[in-house]
Design brief:
77% helix; single chain
């Protein structure tokens, strides 16, 4: 495949945004090793990472395919690969199918539980793309999709559910939902013209920002609780504090009448927050 074609597909799925949930999958994986006293398996770890990449790639490509007509009309998105004619709708849909099959195949080599649950995971991450057509809770569905990262990685190692990764997954759900509400602010007026649903459309800009802050408060609390229950050490609390501070910081960047720094709040701050928390988590548990 030519290099420029690869770049087009990586751009289609915004591959760099994998950084949001992948660190939490790493956290879930190594937490499971610690809880079970299991030996690290490079093969299983690779399968978990590939599951993350394939599931997210399928979800993003499906989102671009499902929204192709909407994106054509939106001044912010009409230059995306499908409306711009860089990638055809059929090519995008085949890419979705390929990544979905690869995701399921990887779960087969992990354990039976992950394999049996793989269609449910796909239903959530693919189904999100249709939800803004009928519910303002679409942000929570997106959060639910990414929240599968820590619990899925934990299940890959243990094959069993546990309270700690569930709390981490709930934290991810609140975190992602909160920053997706912020991101949706820039399309508020356009969404109204297209009868699309979102929290900003439903509640207005000020109330939407208030709900985003509340969800991020819940996210911080749900990051706090695992550390409390596990009697975590100083590194964990440094990670928690860094994560919480960055959540607060992103809200200082966005004002109801000024969205000029939304990319800094959405992309940069949240990517840094997840990576820093994961690094401190690993330091606390293994060093």
């Amino acid at each position: 495949m030519p290099t420029h074609t690869i770049k087009n597909y990586l751009s289609l799925i915004k591959f760099s945004h994998t950084i949001f949930a992948l660190p939490f999958a790493v956290v879930g994986f190594f937490l499971a090793l610690k809880v079970e006293g299991a030996t690290f398996s490079a093969q299983k770890f690779l399968m978990v990472v590939l599951c993350m990449v394939f599931a997210r790639s399928a979800a993003m490509a499906f989102n671009r395919w499902a929204d192709r007509e909407i994106d054509k009309k939106n001044p912010r998105t009409f230059i995306r690969e499908i409306p711009a004619g860089i990638i055809s709708p059929n090519q995008a849909l085949f890419f979705v199918f390929l990544n979905a099959v690869l995701f399921v195949a990887c779960t087969y080599f992990i354990n039976p539980l992950c394999f049996y649950l793989s269609p449910v995971a796909l239903l959530v991450v693919l189904g999100y793309s249709l939800t803004k057509r009928f519910t303002a809770l679409c942000h929570l569905i997106l959060g639910l999709g990414l929240s599968l990262a820590p619990i899925g990685a934990f299940l890959a190692v243990t094959g069993e559910f546990n309270l700690i990764p569930i709390l981490l997954s709930l934290s991810v759900m609140c975190w992602v939902s909160g920053f997706d509400i912020i991101y949706a602010l820039q399309d508020e007026e356009f969404d109204k013209t297209q009868q699309l649903q979102s929290i900003p459309v439903k509640m207005g800009r000020n109330a939407a920002l208030g709900l985003s802050r509340f969800l991020h408060l819940c996210s911080a609390l749900l990051i706090f609780l695992p550390g409390y229950y596990m009697h975590a050490g100083n590194f964990y609390w440094m990670g928690f504090l860094s994560f919480a501070v960055l959540l607060v910081y992103q809200h200082t960047l966005i004002k109801p009448n000024d969205l000029s720094r939304i990319n800094l709040a959405f992309f940069t701050t949240n990517g840094i927050a997840s990576v820093i928390f994961a690094l401190f988590f690993l330091l606390d548990f293994y060093f």
